[in-house]
Amino acid sequence: MEKINGKFITLEGVEGCGKTTQQKELVSWLEARGVTCISTKQPGGSAIGKKIREILLHKDSEGMTSTCEALLYLADRAQHHEEVIMPALKNGTWIVCDRYQDSTRAYQGAARGMDPNELDRIFQLATNGLKPDLTFLLDLDPEVGLLRARKRLAQDGMAHAEGRFEDEHLRFHQAVRKSFLSFAEEEPERFVIIDAKHPREAVTQNIHRVLEERGILVR
Fold first, then answer.
1. 165 in a structural domain
2. I need a labelling partner for 201 at 20 to 30 A (CA). Which of 17, 63, 138, 154 fits?
């Protein structure tokens, strides 16, 4: 593994859990404390990744196979790793990323039924197995999250362009949530579960509190 000087923080959770909002809040909070950081996402954190994102999330891709879906996500991850994440981390820049490999393990692994060992093997090839230093799991009832997500997509006029996963059955999203919670139980040192049903300000404060308690800002 190459030498890394920056920190790598990810946000995970079901659709509509507030990751994008909390990512913006976290980056602003870190920058106010003198931390140089990059806000990015998967899929779509690179120029090539944006094209992959269009294919993955568009409702016209409803016939996509689970294998094709997983490989596209991991292709996005490989490009993002080489183009954005590793150059920044080696330079001492922090990365705050909306979704990472845990999403693939939850969505394509648990919910789609793909072999998690196969997904991890491809992930190893794509990123040399890079893991986040800290992962915030914004935990929320999928039924509540889906209502939020569908409302946001409708307001933004993106329901067709980015609504493929929001069309999945509730059982699918329940499997995703269950999987995320199992990951957090398996890796308590990396995962922090944040109750996302609370108001936005309270969720933000809880994230800040964790970073302060863990002393992660000590460089």
1. yes
2. 154
Q: Let me know if residue 1 belongs to a domain.
A: no
What is the per-residue pLDDT for 2? 57
pLDDT of residue 3: 60
Single-letter code of the amino acid located at 132: P
Full domain range(s) for residue 200 = 8-214
Task: Note whether residue 2 is domain-resident.
Answer: no
39 bridge partner residues: 96
Dump the DSSP string for the chain: -----S-EEEEE-STTSSHHHHHHHHHHHHHHTT--EEEEETTTSSHHHHHHHHHHH-GGGTT--HHHHHHHHHHHHHHHIIIIIHHHHHTT-EEEEE--HHHHIIIIIIIT---HHHHHHHHHHHHTT---SEEEEEE--HHHHHHHHHHHHHHHT-TTTS-TGGGS-HHHHHHHHHHHHHHHHH-TTTEEEEETTS-HHHHHHHHHHHHHHHTTT--
The per-residue pLDDT for 219 is: 44
- State which residues of the chain have pLDDT below 50: 219
- 17 within some domain: yes
CATH of the domain at 57: 3.40.50.300
- For residue 169, what are the contacts with CB-CB under 8 A and spacing of at least 6? none
Q: Are 102 and 180 in contact (CB under 8 A)?
A: yes
The structural domain count of the chain equals 1
Is the pTM higher than 0.85? The answer reads yes
